[in-house]
Amino acid sequence: DIQMTQSPSSLSASVGDRVTIACRASQSISNYLNWYQQKPGKAPKLLIYAASTLQSGVPSRFSGSGSGTEFTLTISSLQPEDFAVYYCQQTYSVLWTFGQGSKVEIK
Amino acid sequence: EVHLVESGGGLVKPGGSLRLSCAASGFTLSNYTMSWVRQAPGKGLEWVSSISISSSYVYYADSLKGRFTVSRDNAKNSLYLQMNSLRAEDTAIYYCARLFHYGGYDYSDYWGQGTLVTVSS
Q: For chain A: N or C, fewer Cβ within 10 A?
């Protein structure tokens, strides 16, 4: 299976901060990489697909980049509603895998 | 509006079985690949299984070791997950999700609210 490793596992940030979360794949996955946001007690929500394409309705402060094995999710100016857990997911293999999650907390 | 509603979760003893259902509305189920994803309490997301439109292709996470079976009934707009030989580590919220395929890329654009499965004696 392709392993996905996110860093950091958690971070503390303030409203208005620029936040970057990294996701590394154990082998090249081209750009078959999705990002999801999950808030407590809620289902995950798709933010970005194909590594850098913003899902319809997602604020433009979210962006994604990368290809091969290294990817990043960036929130340009953190808003109160952005405090959540973020997951990357690879769909290069038919056996999908998620990263372990990165929790963004209020400083 | 797209809705996915899971049901069938509950408390089951180790070694027992459970069948989850996912009722789809607001879209034509027969046009979409579907998947199951689970989340153990306080843990991350784990992909469980995917099933293609006509059930021709089904995939499972290696960790399940053949204990789970996914199926669908497009006429009933429903997705199912039959879970056998359940273990404590199968305790989780189980989500069904619609897979959108666009330009060669796959992503889950709609998710249900999840159903909790607890495996305990």
A: C
Sorted by sequence, the CB contacts under 8 Å of residue B31 that are 6+ apart come out as: B53
Structure tokens at B55: 């059930």
pLDDT tens digits along A38-63: 999 999 999 999 999 999 999 999 99
Between chains, do A100 and B62 touch, taking CB under 8 Å as contact? no
pLDDT tens digit string along B64-73? Answer: 979 999 999 9
Contact B47 A46 (CB under 8 A): no
**B29/A28 Cα distance (integer angstroms):** 32
Residues 6+ apart with CB under 8 A from A81: none
- How many other CB atoms are there within 10 angstroms of residue A49's CB atom? 26
Place of tokens 């784990």: B46
Q: Are B99 and B107 in contact (CB under 8 A)?
A: yes
Q: For chain A, what is the radius of gyration of the CA atoms?
A: 13
Burial track B35-61 (b if 16+ CB lie within 10 A, e otherwise):
bbbbbeeeebbbbbbbbebeeeeebbb
- Chain B positions touching A44 (Cβ under 8 A) are 37, 45, 95, 108, 111
* A residues 60-79 closer than 8 Å to B (CB): none
Question: B47–A100: do the CB atoms touch at under 8 Å?
Answer: no
pLDDT band at B97 (very low <50, low <70, confident <90, very high): very high
